[in-house]
Design a protein that fits this description.
Length: 193
């Protein structure tokens, strides 16, 4: 009798394992068939340089432009320039929800999300996430700051489409906005060469 019970248990366990394996294969297949490309990958496939027109970040700077340095299937590298001489380069990883993330340190992570895009401009949500270095085992980050910015394709610099302005206003709500792109930016790249 004990042998029969053991055999029945083994058969049931084998059946459950096979069912789980089939479910996992089906869910993997359905994800790859319906998964759309990351919006940042599509955006940077169609642009090599964008200019920041407006931002809710109160850091006073002008003539911010971002240039795609490199891109592959998992992420991209963007160099950000301010005015004539200042720049930095960050490596970003494509993530879900049309977002990219950049880990600055073990305690600070940046996240960007495209909330509107029309081919010539985009509205981005920028988040700074931080983790307290208290020695706890939890791998949780806390949202520290959220900003929004409106970026323009290099060919559109200085001419913000009305739909982008409207989407930017909707995203930022009542927060103050700062004009980053100014007329002097038109010739700034000639000065830096």
């Amino acid at each position: 009798m004990l042998k029969i019970i053991v055999i029945v248990l083994l058969l049931c366990a084998a059946k459950k394992c096979n069912a789980a394996k089939i479910e996992a294969q089906q869910s993997l297949g359905s994800n790859t068939a319906t998964k759309k490309p990351n919006a940042f990958k599509e955006f940077w496939t169609n642009h090599t340089k964008v200019w920041t027109a407006k931002s809710t970040d109160m850091f006073h700077y002008t003539c911010e432009r971002e240039v795609l340095s490199n891109m592959n299937d998992t992420g991209l590298q963007i160099t950000t320039y301010f005015d004539v001489k200042n720049s930095f380069t960050l490596n970003w990883t494509f993530t879900e929800n049309d977002s990219i993330t950049c880990t600055l340190s073990s305690n600070v992570k940046l996240r960007r999300q495209i909330i509107y895009e029309n081919g010539t401009c985009a509205v981005l949500k920028l988040e700074v996430w931080s983790r307290n270095d208290s020695g706890s085992q939890e791998n949780t980050y806390v949202l520290g700051q959220t900003n929004y910015k409106l970026v323009l394709d290099d060919k559109k610099k200085g001419n913000v489409p009305a739909d982008c302005t409207q989407q930017y206003r909707r995203a930022r709500g009542k927060r103050d906005t700062y004009k980053v792109y100014r007329d002097k930016c038109k010739n700034i790249e000639k000065k830096s060469q």
